[in-house]
Amino acid sequence: MSSGTQRPYVVAHVAVSLDGATTGFQPDLALFYGLAQTWNEDLTLTGSDTILAQEAALAATETATEAGAEAGAGAGGPGPAAGRPLLAVVDGRGRVTRWEALRQAGHWSDVVALHSHATPPRPPDRPVRELVTGTDRVDLADALRTLARDDGISVVRVDSGGRLIGALLAGGLLDEVSLLVHPCLAGERATRYWYGDRPAAAPLTLVAAQSLPDGLVWLRYRT
Question: Is 124 exposed, middle or buried (0-12, 13-18, 19+ CB in 10 A)?
Answer without folding.
Answer: exposed
